[in-house]
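Appendix B, example 12.
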Amino acid sequence: MTLSTYTPALYASFRHQTFTHRQLVPVPSKGLLRIERGSVRTLTWSDQGTPITLGYWGVGDVLGQSLSGVQPYQIECKTHVEISYIPANLFDRSLDEILAHVQQTQAFFCIVRSESLRDRLLQLLVFLGQKFGREVAQGLLIDLRLTHQELSEAMGITRITVTRLMCRLEEEGIIDRSRPQYIVLTSR
């Protein structure tokens, strides 16, 4: 799914900033931000004030208002994050990452438009596992602390429905949630 040709040395001269878990990243009106370490989610709000998750992003991903066009646009750190700024006149250095951003956005959109809510949640967890997962004895650990509220905002459903679906997936043996806020896609 990713075309990333992550080359930290190419961006070494760019200004780097660090942020902590849950901190909001200031979004420049022009230019892009590149994640050098950590993970973030981007979000906006409906007219009623409901948060809408636009995506989850990790090392090597580029993001910003210039790619989104959505207002309001917010970047929330899911972990400790290091980000570099890419000025608009240097976007040509990031074409592979920009294409990967478009592809990931479209893949995310397809997931959240899935008809079956159970399948939508499972596809989202698989997507997050592929992007942020690491192998553990039980299967693939999604190495992000995800709340049911955040999952509901990503899927466009209620938190209560997410809780019910998570219990169902756990009963089916598809996921393991023995550690609070961590999800393992079991290797069955």
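Helices lie at 65-68, 95-112, 117-132, 148-155, 159-171. The chain has a mean pLDDT of 88.
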